[in-house]
């Protein structure tokens, strides 16, 4: 058998961490000496420890790892598939941040203000037609938008429906909550289908925002400023159209729509 120190050296995990794993029943020593409390591990537990460390690298929580290791069913494949999608989304976000930083560095080297793009946001007043949408509304975090858009496209593919516009999100509620925002994810489709509805057309103030989704706040700010300045009144929920996303390559392009009356 291996002492906790030997097991620690082999697995490259501190003894403090091993004691914590023991306390949460993640991986327990095979034997504890009743007289001195020394912990001992079997050599075959090295494989289990390597598995734990691999799942940690995949950004699973210790609770999730515990569930995977001690579940009576084989849930590992499903868990890793879901986690892979999360990691891809995080990578995409960081790539967009990296691109934005490079653009800002270039602007600063040229002596420009990195916020000059705000002045380039143009506000348009348009009349829109009703849009037939397949949608799903629930409380969700901002990180879950892609997941719910993906589920709608699964329904579209399974039922051979015809997409006639980019994905959208419609926002409800009086305030923003990053973790539980009342949001309706939608995809415009041609057919009347179970779960479809009409998004009413009408008069909208709209702005096109290029770059990271964090830039949308400036677009909303300019829209609200323009609406108040021109004596319009907001009549309903805002929505966004995602013309180009992080996975499409190139610059992200988003349109914001706010319904109005004079």
UniProtKB/TrEMBL annotation:
Q: Does the keyword Glycosyltransferase apply?
A: no
| Regions annotated as coiled coil | none
Q: From which organism does this entry originate?
A: Clostridium bornimense
Protein known as: Transcriptional regulator, MerR family
Q: Which InterPro entries match?
A: AraC_E-bd (IPR010499), DNA-bd_dom_put_sf (IPR009061), GyrI-like (IPR029442), MerR-type_HTH_dom (IPR000551), MerR_fam (IPR047057), Reg_factor_effector_dom_sf (IPR011256)
The UniProt GO MF terms for this protein read: DNA binding; DNA-binding transcription factor activity
**Cited PROSITE patterns:** HTH_MERR_2 (PS50937)
Pfam short name (any one): MerR_1
């Amino acid at each position: 058998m291996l002492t906790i120190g030997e097991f620690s050296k082999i697995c490259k995990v501190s003894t403090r961490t091993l004691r914590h794993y023991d306390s949460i029943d993640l991986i327990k020593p095979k034997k504890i000496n009743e007289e001195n409390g020394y912990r001992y591990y079997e050599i075959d537990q090295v494989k289990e420890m390597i598995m734990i460390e691999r799942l940690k690298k995949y950004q699973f929580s210790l609770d999730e790892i515990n569930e995977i290791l001690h579940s009576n069913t084989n849930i590992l494949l499903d868990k890793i598939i879901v986690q892979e999608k999360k990691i891809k989304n995080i990578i995409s976000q960081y790539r967009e941040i990296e691109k934005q930083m490079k653009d800002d560095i270039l602007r600063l080297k040229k002596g420009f203000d990195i916020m000059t793009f705000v002045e380039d946001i143009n506000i348009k007043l348009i009349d829109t037609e009703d849009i037939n949408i397949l949608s799903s509304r629930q409380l969700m975090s901002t990180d879950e938008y892609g997941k719910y858009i993906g589920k709608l496209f699964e329904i579209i593919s399974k039922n051979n429906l015809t997409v006639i516009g980019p994905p959208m999100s419609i926002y409800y509620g009086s305030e923003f909550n990053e973790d539980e925002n009342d949001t309706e994810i939608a995809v415009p489709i041609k057919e009347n289908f179970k779960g479809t509805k009409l998004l009413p057309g009408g008069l909208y103030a709209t702005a096109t925002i290029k770059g990271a989704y964090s830039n949308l706040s400036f677009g909303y700010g300019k829209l609200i400023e323009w609406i108040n300045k021109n004596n319009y009144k907001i009549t309903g929920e805002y929505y966004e159209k995602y013309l180009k996303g992080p996975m499409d390559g190139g610059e992200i392009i988003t349109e914001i729509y706010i319904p109005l009356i004079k």
